[in-house]
Amino acid sequence: MPGENLSRDEAHERAALLSVDGYEVVLDLRSAVGDSADAVRTFRSETTIRFRRTGEGTSTFVDLIAPAVTAVTLNGRSLDPEAVFDGSRIALDGLADENVLVVDAQCAYSRTGEGMHRFVDPEDGEVYLYTQYEPADARRVYVTFEQPDLKAPHLFAVTAPEGWTVWSNGAGEQDAEGVWRFAETAPISTYISCVVAGPYHYVTDRYTRTLADGTELEIPLGAMCRKGLARHFDADDVFLVTKQGFDFFHDNFDYPYPFGKYDQAFVPEYNLGAMENPGMVTFREEYIYRGKVTQAAYERRANVILHEMAHMWFGDLVTMVWWDDLWLKESFADFMGSFSLAEATRFTNSWVTFANNRKAWAYRADQLPSTHPITADIRDLEDAKLNFDGITYAKGASVLKQLVAYAGRDAFLEGARRYFKRHAYGNTRLTDLLTILEETSGRDMKAWAKSWLQTSGVNTLTPAVSYDAEGRITELAVLQEGAELRPHRAAVGLYRLSGGELVRYARAEADITGARTVVADLAGEAKPDLVLVNDDDLTYCKVRFDEDSLATLRAHLGDITDPLARALCWSALWNLTRDALMPARDFVSVVLAFAGRETDIGVLQMVHAWGKSAVTHYAAPAWREEGGRLLAEGALRELRVAEPGSEHQLTWARFFAATASSEADFQLLEGLLDGAAKIDGLDVDQELRWSLLSPLAAHGRADEARIGEELTRDDTATGKRHQVRLLASRPSAAVKAQAWAQVVESDTLSNALVEATIAGFVQPSQRELIAPYAEKYFAVIERLWAERSIQIGMDVVRGLFPGLQDDEATLAATDTWLSAHESAAPALRRLVLESRDDLARALRAQDCDRLAG
Prior knowledge:
Blueprint: H1 8-17, E1 18-28, E2 42-53, E3 60-63, E4 68-74, E5 77-79, H2 81-84, E6 89-92, E7 98-110, E8 115-120, E9 127-132, E10 154-159, E11 165-168, E12 172-174, E13 179-182, E14 195-198, E15 201-210, E16 216-225, H3 235-253, E17 262-267, E18 274-275, E19 280-284, H4 295-311, E20 319-320, H5 327-344, H6 350-365, H7 381-386, H8 391-407, H9 409-423, E21 427-428, H10 430-441, H11 445-452, E22 460-467, E23 473-481, E24 488-498, E25 501-512, E26 516-518, E27 530-535, E28 542-543, H12 547-556, H13 563-578, H14 584-594, H15 601-618, H16 621-641, H17 647-659, H18 663-674, H19 686-698, H20 704-713, H21 717-729, H22 733-745, H23 751-761, H24 767-770, H25 773-787, H26 790-799, H27 808-820, H28 826-852
Parallel strand pairs: 1-10, 7-8, 16-17, 17-19, 20-21, 22-28
Antiparallel strand pairs: 1-2, 2-7, 3-6, 4-5, 4-7, 8-9, 9-14, 10-13, 11-14, 12-13, 15-16, 18-19, 22-23, 23-26, 24-25, 24-27
Helix pairs in contact: 3-4, 3-5, 4-5, 5-8, 6-8, 6-13, 8-9, 9-10, 13-15, 14-15, 15-16, 15-17, 16-17, 17-19, 18-19, 19-21, 20-21, 21-23, 22-23, 23-26, 25-26, 26-28, 27-28
């Protein structure tokens, strides 16, 4: 609908006209349960907004996406709903200085994870509700001024089915009439208001702390999940990390947690990792582990818990004016997640994970045609939705890590403390933070911001070393490439082989500026076997190697003793492969030689993903089968020698299942599933069973009946998603046609089942089978984008892009679509452009690999 995509100009105009004093939202959710013949199941939403006119003008609009509006009253004057409501906005004319708007509407439950999501648990038939709004879906639940700078207190009252519990941002209780009433919130943006309702399993705890002024702070803690997951819910560990996070942030922010209680809900069919609703954080329930997982999984969950907690200050207490400055919350939360993880929890190596995992996301995003400055130009809500990306999160966090090295830790944290106190419950722009950081650091933050926040692209740093006749360094320079040559605070490490280990013997930090910087402190050092630029990962850059160092890594990567240095080298080799500077088969050779010696489980899992991607996308087509066979053989070899019962054994088992391709591989997987084969110490639990069954389904060795038998063993919501994925993965033209129709021609599937069906449809071993859908894809995506919610649109456009048809014809078809659809929605074009870039990159890498063959 025309008014659904709010523009920045419209938001700025509305903010100049009015300020909001408060929302009173009354919801009746009793319709969530019971039989309903309605095509769209709805609930009643009655909202009262009190607001003042503070600028010139007497007309504006409020936002509401709903099937029907029953009544609209402005300042006691009834308005005709049919005349003022267009499906996404209600027009308001004749504003007074002080205004009271009352809207009674029928809002729709969601199946796409946006607005009020309704989930029916197939295991027991119970219904669960939760809301998800960012960036602008509160308007699907109650009438709003849907923009972050019109903050206001919220007061919620909810009537729910009998036996349910309801939660919101503030503390609540049920009154004598059965209505759940909640304490009024502090001023917050609409996108972080929240309601969770249903028969959730709920566990409580408390956090207490004596503040510096002697005040006793007590925060009630809660954690919840579906009843069907209760037996797997390790709430004690969730509370442990939560308390450790609160300790860290209270120690460093000097601003007590400002939102009262702190609930954390793990909810089904969630589109995101989590959402920072103050007092009521929501997470995807996949963070509750149904089987054995590695410590890397627990580290990821802890990082997300701390990321969302950091938002209570960066984002909730102080909020950006508009989505251009999304980095003011997401970059800071991403950085603070790893920062607090390393310093306050058992996951002390979190910076290794950050260097290897998060930065890989940033490097990819920063080389796409859609790359943008960290402070982006966000024209409208569709732009905003797509900017929750690797630039805003991981690059922004990387740049903040560099800022800490540049300005100093103490100055950075003091800047944060002043920022919270100066702008509490308000909205800010980039200049507000930079002004404070200049105060605390004495640095020219405007120049730093211009280089790092207001430009795009990633720099490449390469060492250039010369030696004297005795093999000592006469000069070591760092060469910088990139469209924007930025100032970097970076370390250069020198490593040599000693006793079978590759260890650092010299290190120097330097300010890298311009195209060439000499690191004088390393002159005179003995010749190294490896020169590692950006040692300790202080800055954001791609690292290259001199020829001697690259040769050392090919032969001795596994001998590097420091896990962070090793992770940086893995990442650098992967970037060489993606940039078509190292043949994919060479990268696979390094994986086969050294992945078995990788001690950090998170790095190992990332290396596995890269190895499989190298074969799937970057290897010459003629070598793919050989590369896949080598990976499967290597995975099985490491699986058999891994310590029984260890997380490495589990990781290699999953990788073996992901790469299995031969008759012998399939027979072993079948044996592990039916008990005929055993690997000492390997616990084949239900989640691992689905992993082992997946390649059997994709290669035609597990039919519908066999997949159904597995669902009988695991007749749960998670089991259902696995079943849907495996059914769509079978190598049959009829199966692919059905999966395509379910996703493209129908909108009955929930967001989670759309995602599962797409994952099953796209199988690297079935390139020829799905080739006919390339043409169909380009024929339907514009219609799909117009008809579906933006989340489903993103999932379909990204997920079904024919990237596995990796040839020049597909590239040309993509270019033809882009040329013929210049007026298509910018967000849709961005998604297609990104997929095109991935395809073009794959073709360049395949050419590189072909020449190596």
